[in-house]
Amino acid sequence: MIARTLSTLLSLAALFAVLGFAGTQAAERRVQSIEVNVKDAAQAEFLNGRRIAEQLGTTRLEGELLGDVDLQSMVDHLETMGPCSHAEAYPTMDGTLHIDVWQRTPLLRVHVNGGRDFYLDEEGKTMELDAYHTPHIPVMHVDRETQATMGYRFVKATEGDLFWDALTDQLSMNDQGELVLHPRLAGHHIVLGNDKEVQHKKRNLLAFYRAHIERGNLRTYQRIDLTYRDQVIAQRYP
Q1: How would you class 2 by CB atoms within 10 Å of its CB: exposed for 0-12, middle for 13-18, buried for 19 or more?
Q2: pLDDT digits (tens, 9 = 90+) for 134-190
Q3: Which domains does the chain have, with CATH numbers?
Q4: CB-CB contact of 104 with 122 (8 Å)
Q5: Which of 4, 41, 114, 166 has its CA 20 to 30 A from that of 186?
Q6: The model's pTM
């Protein structure tokens, strides 16, 4: 047992020595190239290699000793960019400096009447608009920023639902504090009431749509109310 323990300790010591030597060698190497990888480029289009390079001034890094490059400061700087969720930077033995970034995903654009526009991301956190990219996502019109919370919860609850995704375009809050959906289907708005029981409201709305599409009179309605659990109240145009 003692011999086995000593063997293990010696192996670990040798491993740490090799790693330490490799780390020293890496620090003495110079930056040969910069490789930027936007890990979720297919999900959002805020960040790309050129934008990251412009932000960091990576052309000034080539030729520098890897040991002189402050990787943590680089990561901290990238993470101050509004669209950046988090970043990693690490060198490899061939002198390549790898920079990996992940983006934030906005779910809802909020328009404050008489005020500013901003996004709410997948975690419900505020995200400023970006000059490089404007995603196609639902917009909620509010008088106060706090009113956007219910709209965000609704969009979050229906994320990935093909029916709601196809229908949800504009949202607002009425004078009664109810969430209102203004669908891409022109001619009517839908009073959701709140962000609860979205699947039940979907079933009720689908049943209403199917019935009135068959009759050909869906466009005669200006308001569809889903606030009652077991019925749909529809108001025709005068």
Answers
A1: exposed
A2: 999 999 999 999 999 999 999 999 999 999 999 999 999 999 999 999 998 768 999
A3: 30-103 (3.10.20.310), 106-236 (3.40.50.11690)
A4: yes
A5: 114
A6: 0.80
